[in-house]
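May I ask for a protein sequence together with how it folds?
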Amino acid sequence: MRPNAMTPATVPTRRAFSERMAEYGAIDSDFVVFEADIGYSTFSHLFGDRYPERYFNMGIAEGNMVSAAAGMAADGRTAVASSYGVFITMRALESVRTFVCYPDLNVKFLSSHGGFTPSIDGVTHQATEDIANMTTLPNMKVLVPADTWAAKKLFDVAMQTPGPVFVRLMRDPILDLYEPGDSFRLGGSHVVIEGSDVTIATYGDILFPSIEAAQLLAAEGIRAEVLDLYSVKPFDREGLLKSLDKTGALVVAENHQKRNGLGYELSNFCLKNRVVPFDNLGLEDTFAESGSYGKLLEKYGLSKTCIAEAAKRLLRRA
């Protein structure tokens, strides 16, 4: 990883994940992919173009899609169910809960348009409650790649992990940080920038303004540690505690509702295991809105400046 040499991404994580899925079709000849009529948006069509006999477009019927994927998984195959996050985690939630999580089946979810990364598409397509819905379900694991290589590697992690796995992906390309040699695992994390004054824990797209916030803080003599918790459920408890042993303060920043997101999970964990000055950044019981992604980051307190200011406020309280 190269936090001081991030480069513009050429593809969104939804495409990188699907590109690896198409490659993986040659490795595992049994797994199947289900789509809810937006395969050219999720890029699941890349698998379907190569393996049409293993690709099923179920139409605009996400609940049926998940139920069909569960049926195939119950017969011993690994299935991928693909759609936008808002539709998988709300419209199809009962099917995910009852037919996938309850029997603990090998269904993996390609969930595109996480958070308000589909900024110009508006609230109907912005999944800002998806982490809460998915992490609450027993047996569900949740992964959130930040860039191209993370998406490809976490596809493999999802396929190799028994039971249901939800992978949150982004609409647009942002930046690339990771390299082909970087490793990822269920329950893992990466210390992207080492620090000693405050930990900034994050995942997905907010990793990049968090890195930039750490660079702003460094210019003021504040050493922030940036922790990419790409495995949201289970999260890296040991890695978090190790970071807090160094810094003694925690800011969680996420493109999600504050309520019942990773911030709530980590605050509960810290109250039980390591009490430290704490703040969490995200949507404050509100929907986002249509607009440019950068302006939404600023409005909802997730830009690099907002994250840096939150860290400084926290340190003044400590």
Observations:
- The first strand starts at residue 7 and ends at 8.
